[in-house]
Amino acid sequence: MGRFLAITSVLAAVVALGWVATVGPWAWWVVGALIAALVILAIYDLVQTKHAILRNYPVAGHLRFLLESLRPELQQYFIERNWDGKPFDRDTRSIVYERSKGIHGEKAFGTERDVNAAGYEYLAHSTAPVPQPAQPPRVMVGGPDCSQPYSMALLNVSAMSFGALSPNAVRALNRGAEMGGFAHDTGEGGISPYHLENGGDLIWEVGSGYFGTRTSDGRFDPKLFADQSTNDQVKCVSLKLSQGAKPGIGGVLPAAKVNAEIAHARGVPQGEKCVSPAAHTAFSTPIELIEFIARMRDLSGGKPAGFKLCVGSRVDVLAICKAIKDVGTPPDFIIVDGSEGGTGAAPLEFEDHMGTPLTDGLLTVHNALVGTGLRDRIRIGASGKVAAGNDIVKRLAQGADYTNSARAMMMAIGCIQAQVCHTGLCPVGVTTQDPRRQRALHVGDKSERVRNYQEATVAQAVEIMAAMGVSDPRELRPEMLQRNVGPADHRSYAELYEWLEPGELLSQPPEAWSKDWALAESSTFHRR
User: Fold this and answer.
1) Are 397 and 493 in contact (CB under 8 A)?
2) Do 124 and 480 touch, CB atoms closer than 8 A?
3) 139, 233, 262, 439: most buried by Cβ count inside 10 Å?
4) Ramachandran area for residue 301 (φ above 0: left; ψ -120 to 50: alpha; else beta)
């Protein structure tokens, strides 16, 4: 209640000043009127639903908006001194915030980026643009072994767990997904009641902790999995191997944060530290992995089943492909998570120095599937700092079929990148379990913003593709994405990277792939 102390103090001051004003000079009336105005403003801030900052920090929160009004001078000052840190840059933040509020994103003047700098990437437009399709394209996920395929949007809510997110944040994301017709990944924290309130399509992610489907000793419980996964709201089931922001380790939720609701959703004891192990106990080899995913599909009643990973080694990816060939039952999808992806908390060394960036990981998985003749049966999702329409098109050109976004979706529901997610002190109610802070996030308003953001961003991606002469994402080609490699030289992705032909690894592996192909074994993840 500390943040409401100011209001209480002001109210007391009004009462005192009211008495003084009856006997003191007329100036006291002026002071009293000013204080009364502040009280009215504070009450309005508390009851309005548009601004989470003002709901949690009445009156004082207006200082933030005052500073925002000084743009672009202040923003440029911060950028020049690298005060933005690791989060999205200014342009990306503006895109998300404005689209979520239904504001058009057109800007005056030209690009502010150094288009001649090495590393700058751009999409090649066509001299003959094509009309945009009447409806945004969607992707059918589900191979021949799947009896309940799912039509996936080009942009969806990426994996974020209840526990890391507040109840109101989960509610807003899921309601926005239901309104906009896209999918909401639960994260590995289990399916909570808040995921089910508004009927949005769910991708149920199961991690190494098997939260929501675990036995008392922390192992996978097939009966619990079948009970939850057959819920009509669950459209796909996904196995998490690794996360881009902290690959190779599990997560930890401190005991103080494991309240009754989180304990119930995860199937863990209340008030005890909740640990997600680094490795799975349900399988230990590539073959066992593929067999386990097939089991997940069967237990769910034939829904699309797949897995998520941050690529660590091309050998591991090829070992999985060999296992798919040996087992004969491929996963329906693979989600590639880039090392640039975000997290609520992780060791800094893992965030900055572990895992493959999304571009390289995506190209590795796409080419491995093409080279083993599996690409036409498996859909690829891409996640890791996807926020704008050009991000979607870029990832599709690199081999993805659809994309997922976490941080941008958080920003759409009010995240201001305060970077205190791990403390429980989120100022806008997105990543806190404190009911007093959660109230700042108004579900009705923020769910509209989620829908607005996703709809406008997909529409922009479709418009970009039309400008490139493409009406269907499957028509995108690597040569349509260009990169500056020097001040006077640029190359397309078709030139920068090797692109395998269907089945090439099975017949004659190219030299650059032959050593890794020889090392990969379907019976083990451990390299010789």
Assistant:
1) yes
2) yes
3) 262
4) left
Q: Which of 477, 456, 468, 465 is nearest to 133 (CA)?
A: 465
Residue 406 neighbours by CB distance under 10 Å? 26
Residue with tokens 């039509």: 151
Q: pLDDT tens for residues 137-150?
A: 999 999 999 999 99
Under a CB-based contact definition with an 8 Å cutoff, are residues 259 and 268 in contact? Answer: no
The answer to whether 74 and 67 have CB atoms below 8 angstroms apart is yes
Query: Contact 237/297 with Cβ under 8 angstroms?
Result: yes
* pLDDT score, position 78: 43
Contact 342, 102 (CB under 8 A): no
Q: Kindly compute the dihedral angle of the four CA atoms of residues 453, 457, 458, 459, in this order, to the nearest 10 degrees.
A: 110
pLDDT of residue 332: 98
Tokens 């913003």 locate to 449
Q: What is the pTM of this model?
A: 0.86
Contacts of 492 (CB under 8 A, 6+ apart): 124, 478, 479, 480, 481, 482, 483
The helix (run of H) or strand (run of E) holding residue 140 is: strand 139-141
- What does the block give as tokens for 191? 């399916």
**Phi/psi zone of residue 339: left (φ > 0), alpha (ψ -120 to 50 degrees), beta?**
alpha
Decide: helix, strand or coil at residue 167. Answer: helix
pLDDT of residue 257: 75
Give CA–CA dist 238/332, Å, rounded. 10
Residues forming beta bridges with residue 382, ordered by sequence position? 336, 403
pLDDT score of 83 = 37
User: Looking at this protein, which amino acid is placed at residue 304?
Assistant: P
Which residue type does 22 have?
Answer: T
DSSP bridge partners of 522:
none
| pLDDT of 29 | 64
Q: What is the DSSP string of 61-88?
A: THHHHHHHTTTTHHHHHHHHTTTT-SS-
User: Which parts of the chain have pLDDT scores under 50?
Assistant: 1, 72-86
pLDDT tens digits, 274-296: 888 899 999 999 999 999 999 99
Query: What is the identity of the amino acid at 314?
Result: R
Which tokens go with 72? Answer: 């672009």
For domain 139-517, which CATH number applies: 3.20.20.60, 3.10.400.10, 3.40.50.720, 3.20.20.70?
Answer: 3.20.20.70
